[in-house]
Amino acid sequence: QELRPKSLDIKQEELGDMVEKEMASTSEAIEDAVRRIEEMMSQARNKSSGVKLEVNERILNSCTDLMKAIRLLVMTSTNLQKEIVESGRGAATTQEFYAKNSRWTEGLISASKAVGWGATQLVESADRVVLHTGKYEELIVCSHEIAASTAQLVAASKVKAEKSSRNLSRLQECSRNVNEMAANVVASTKSGQEQIEEKDTMDFSGMSLIKLKKEEMETQVKVLELEKRLEGERVRLGELRKQHYALAGTYDAVEDGEAKPAPAPRRGVLKKPPLAQKP
User: Fold this and answer.
1) CB 181, CB 146: distance < 8 Å
2) Other CB atoms within 10 A of residue 14 CB
3) For burial by CB atoms within 10 Å, which of 87, 97, 157, 166 has the most?
4) CATH code: domain of residue 65
5) For the segment 224-277, what is each residue's pLDDT rounded down to a tens digit?
6) Range with the poorest average pLDDT among 17-21, 108-112, 177-181
7) Is 73 among the domain residues?
């Protein structure tokens, strides 16, 4: 009893109400997520264009498909729970059934909460990505969390369900669909991230003449800075090679029995030292 999570420390007669409340709350969270994604889609079309709009639409569409799959999963899970309770399992009432199977009920509540929380987090992460204030990795992590919580919900429902139950088969099918849609979110997110990173600086649509001139000057400054840094690194590489040759010549002279100073390397184009042969 001491090891049980404190959040599950509720009266057994309240468990039935908690199950219905959490499933209803999860359904509301998913419906709200679908509405928010539609709003984000509209905002993305108004505030972005070109490659960014294409990436945002692809990611948000995959998130919408995932939300629809989760909504169907929750509905099917609710139907399966009703079927399990109506089967009785030796209990007279719904409240008595949940109280008698309190451990199972608590697992069901926990799984339902996890699904609803995952859907909410996914939408918030998608919102930040569209606004360019978040990370693409957040969407990927949320997709993995949703897949995990879905598996938890299916496992919790499967414990008390009849093996021949049609609702159980439907729930397992919904779970596979959720996993597939979550994988699509991950795939669209990764491809979108690569596309943005490759072409982010090449999308000049919508820029004014003044803005273009400013970007051109800033790019010229960056080019000059990089060229100067490159020249400095080349000089550093040359000095390192000089020292390497000097030390290598000293060691060769010592091995021959006489410490002769190493010849200074010729100025001009420095060549790479020969590759060491394998013993």
Assistant:
1) no
2) 13
3) 157
4) 1.20.1410.10
5) 999 999 999 999 999 998 988 888 776 555 555 544 444 554 554 455 555 555
6) 17-21
7) yes
